[in-house]
Amino acid sequence: MQALKLYGKKDLRWEKAEEVEVTESDDVVIKVKAAGICGSDLSRFAKLGPYVEGMTFGHEFSGVVEKVGKAVTHVNPGDRVAGCPAFPCKSCHECEKGNPARCEKLTVLGAFQAGAFADKTKLPAANVLPIPDEVDDDTAAMIEPSAVVAHAYYRTSMQPGDTVAVLGCGNIGLLAIQWAKTFGASTVYAIDIDSNKLTIAERVGADVTILPKEKPAYEIIQELGGDGVDVAVESAGSVAASAEVLALPKKGGEVVFMGIPYSDVSIKRFYFEKIVRNELRILGGWNAVSSPFPGREWHTSIEAMRSGCIQTNPIITHRLPLEEGPAVFERILNQNEFFSKVLLYPTTS
Predict the structure, then answer these.
(1) For residue range 27-48, what is the model confidence (pLDDT) as tens digits?
(2) In terms of C-beta density within 10 A (0-12 exposed, 13-18 middle, 19 or more buried), how is residue 329 classed?
(3) Where are the transmembrane segments (predicted)?
């Protein structure tokens, strides 16, 4: 079996890995069909390094069940599945309260347990979800990031007819646009400094695209006839966007932070005062799980993809063999070409 293993910062290797076997009664061994590169994978690769040296990387994937433990009853060999990569401890205070996303000891596939950038991977049965025939393997590989977005939106008080601004149109932002529409948003503003991303944003349903080069996005939204949006989503994970998003909601509106900046965030007084004077509600959206595990985020994502409400094909820009992983991670960082979602495929699939 072959896998991509992370040994250090920018040290990702395509090499032989141990065969995956059933060792527990609830184990499900899955032959990987498609695996996606997440923004967190890029940060781990370039800035943070591995959790465990030489660990098989990757957590977004779809596949086919190969083997199951004797206690597994809801899937069988040959079934098409997606995998929830989160492992809450189930015993901390937050887990006992029914908040697995806030687990004090939460780990993720590819961190301390071999991940999905491999020919095969393994999950407990509770983390394995059957997928319908209408959801293809590429789409199923993006159920996890879709569930991340749905989880965050479920935390808001969004109502049909509300207006939404999505700041940052990477993969999460492009899914956030579609989920806003699915939740009934009347108008969705897509904001980014990359025109390529805005082109995709328009394809997936954004009503208005904003390239804030000449003036701030909040001014453009006001000029278009609004006093701000009901819900503003920060999905860029940048230091600047983490402050600028505070100027987008109307008085009494909400801000949802989904992106994670990897530097300290300094907020100018102008933006900070928006929180206080506009009485904003500030929310964080973390991970993709809730109770009962893995949560409604997963089931609604699967249904939204089955029904066509969530489209992933416009988001996918690259489909490559898994062994090209080390090279494509470097290519993404070099920024000499445009990348949105990259899917990797084991050669044995």
Answers:
(1) 999 999 999 999 999 999 999 9
(2) buried
(3) none
